[in-house]
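hiii, so i know i said id send this last week but things got crazy w the move. better late than never?? heres the sequnce for the chain we talked about at the cafe, plus the structure i predicted for it. fair warning i was half asleep when i ran it
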Amino acid sequence: MWWFILLLIIVVVIGWLMIDFKLGRSHFIRTRTRRDYEKRNSDIELFSRGPELFDRMFKEMKEAKSSIHVLFYIVQDDHFALRFMDLLKVKAKEGVEVRLLMDQIGSHNVPKSKVRMLRDAGVEVAYCQKVRLPFLFFSSQQRNHRKITVIDGGIGYLGGYNVGKEYIDENDKPELSPWRDYHLRLEGEGVHDLQTEFCIDWFRAAKNELKNEVKYFPPAEKGSITHQIFPTEGVNIEDFFKKFIDEAQDEIIIGTPYFIPTPILMDALCHALERGVIVRVIIPNNADHMLVKEAAFPYFRTLLAKGAKVYQFMNGFYHAKVMIIDDHFCDLGTANFDKRSFFINLEINNLIFDKEFIHTLKKEMAKDMEASDMLSENDLANVSLLTRIKERVASSISILL
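okay and structure toks below
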């Protein structure tokens, strides 16, 4: 009899989770506000290594005169995060307006004592995407995955790096180091859009309206690169990606740590291959989460059979979020090529329409491919029974991976 009661409890819990998630997402989609920014012109610099990125970012934070606005999905509790927080405290004591916004679950390692120290020094701290009623499960899954830094309203950063020692190649797991990722530095018109997105997320978390304050939006000069800031909240990415994939004539390059496409995007990639487009996908060989590697295998079997090339990055962990279409468009930001980024998380990407920048990015990604082993159809045809089981499990919960 006990097993029947246990089974009943399991069924009820699973049913509640499914209903909670469906209703929670539906409510969010109904109440969200879509934001479509115009194309801007900014000067954009690409970073592909954490140490160089943070050296530059921290230097410019030290030089800040009026405001520092920072949003990260993950802030760790380690020596590097402490260095980051000490810098924010120093600037706040100098009279600079400093605001730190962190995802509640992504940054759960930050001790309350360190948050108190930040606030005592004058740093305003808030947590976004808190777990709350009535949709406990959905709210626990919907994360603010954005990474935005805006300094004095005139310098902006966005991309894949968070704050922790693993992001400067000091991971406790040797197989996940060095950390390969991409991040952008902007100066020009696009920084205002990054500032607006930060202000919107800050208002949601702290109930403090900032986006109407002129001082956070100083005059911006046009830069040399045409681009478009692209924030998403559970919708939009799939349609945008399909549009660009359908327009590809020569080559599509996708870099992502998690490859779990939707049926619509899989069809688009297959059609691209059928019309002769070269499709390359770069993924990490070593996974940082359970099941994410196995979740990609069914999709790769289909793509490999149609001629796609899949590269398994061997030199550390590959965390880039990039898509390049021919030589006229690329997307780089925080969204992975997976269902969680498409349908649940809050993300922010940058669509770039500049051949010279794309050429620079392609050269960097060529290094990624050189540091990779090719995945073959034979590799996936001879996987173990355990791997097959993992694939089935991953498929059933793919939107949550």
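btw Residues 127 and 290 are 26 Å apart (CA to CA). thought thatd interest u
miss u guys!!
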